Amino acid sequence: QRIEDPLERDRLNDLIGQVRQEQGVGMGFIARTAAEGVERPAIDLDTRVLTRIWDRILEKKKTVNEPALVYEELPLHIRVVRDLAGPDVQKILIDEPRTYDRVRRFVDEFIPEFTERVVFHEDPRPLFQRSGVDEEIVRALDKRVNLKCGGHLVIEQTEAMITIDVNTGGFLG
Fold this sequence. Notes:
The structure is a single chain. The chain is an alpha+beta fold and 173 residues long. The protein has helices at residues 6-23, 40-63, 76-84, 97-110, 127-130, 133-141, and strands at 92-94, 118-120, 144-146, 152-157, 162-167. Strand 1 (92-94), helix 4 and strand 2 form a beta-alpha-beta unit. Helix 1 (6-23) crosses helix 2 and helix 3 (76-84) crosses helix 4. The protein starts with 5 loop residues before the first helix and ends in a 6-residue tail after the last strand.
């Protein structure tokens, strides 16, 4: 309903219908707004992953006594892989051993075609440090933002308001 373009809604509906038929999937799917413009390989992969998860839920349901947990939302690192792993992803680097093991088990079970793409990063320097992500996070969270003209902004959030102090740094242009 939130995808406003009727042609895009029809395209997604037809595409999901084709994928469901080819995979022999009898359940329905909801195409959220994030699916807008997504091509067939991504829909195909999502359908397979979601179907496998649903099959595991049904299997577990048969073997547990009530009350029991049959499904729990996946942790963030697994959701990232589930949601962002697509045909254009060449490699998934992970530098924490436990996280690597969990992601690898998930990929082995639900997205086996990605098994070889999940790689443990063995460099002693953490990935974020090596690629400069730490510095970018610090810069993004800093309340002072330097401007190209030599001035800067100071952004502060209080309980009642957000203040933005504009300092020209002597720039009068």
